[in-house]
Design goal:
By secondary structure, the chain is α/β, with parallel strands linked by helices. The chain has a single domain, classed as 3-Layer(aba) Sandwich (Peroxisomal Thiolase, Chain A, domain 1). It has ten helices and 13 strands. It is globular, with a radius of gyration of 18 Å. The structure holds acetyl coenzyme *A.
Amino acid sequence: MGSRIVGTGRALPRTRLSNQDLERRLETSDEWIRTRTGIAQRYVLVSGESLVDIAAEASHIALDRAGLAPSELEAIIVGTVSSDFGFPSFACQLQHRLGITDIPSFDVAAACSGYIYALSVADATMRAGEWGRVLVVGTDALSTMVDWNDRRTAVLFGDGAGASVLVSEPGPRGVLGSVLRSAGEHWNLLSVRNAAGTRCTFDAEIRRSADNAIQMRGPELFRIAVRMMEDVTRRVADKAGVRLEDIALILPHQANARIISAVAERLGLNGDKVFINVDRYGNTSAASVPIALDEALEAHRIRDNDLILLNACGGGLTWGANLIRW
Ligand code: ACO
């Protein structure tokens, strides 16, 4: 018995920030941001908006497409590092918002790799026969964790949520395998001390001190991210006995268009086999892969029985990949 994704959805905050909007606040330029990152705009939370509401919206869309009611779910797993509460978990808040009780709901904290980790946990547990219908969500609001005066990080991140509904199913389709890795010794390449939840939105009066905002060693992270994403992609293909050239589409974590192109080049993959939407969303952390998956499906870039590969790398450091027969 395996697990198969039968519905996906995405939702975003309503405020769109273009590079030109950022030019008015920071010493930066549309040209710098586009050439170094590929990002043109991103969506950010503003005061009064709730990331749980946004995750619930994405979840309802995924459930509708799966033809399931929230009450039919047997578990909720959320990949996230963004919550207004240390506890309860984001997943418990989402469960409450979806109006369901009495099922296990928990978070997986792996920063930008959160959805990859959560999907792997869901698949392994479903293979073990524990649950038959699981909601897996990736959601983050890293825009609330930056120092809006620090141009090196403020331009990179956006917020959002992507959701998917998995059902247990025998047969050749579904998640074929996952590989997860982490390297705690690199924790200080990308980190944030968290005390303010998601209250420090773009428009909020309260501001994070620079010490409590995202700290990032960008160039080092860039080099390691490229190596890790290549490595984990090869490993998951090997593990499943699949040749890289047989993969129809790779949906990578959308941190930076240059990282994505460098990984594709090292893997010897054509650009048309790699999905990119970082231009419109920025780096939405754990939300980026499920948002990309939802958009790729909507754009008919994925067909039944295609082999698709999801991969990501993020703070921790963490990295991982899932291989799926759609
Ligand atoms: N606007 C204008 N200039 C800027 C900006 C900005 N927004 N940000 C930095 N600069 C300047 C710097 O101050 C520096 O100027 P200096 O040479 O006068 O000191 C110059 O641009 C070059 O800075 P670098 O940091 O060396 O630029 P680089 O080419 O490495 O690009 C970037 C920076 C985009 C952050 C890159 O290192 C990167 O993408 N790293 C990976 C980081 C990442 O993606 N993190 C997300 C989470 S991890 C993950 O998801 C994989």
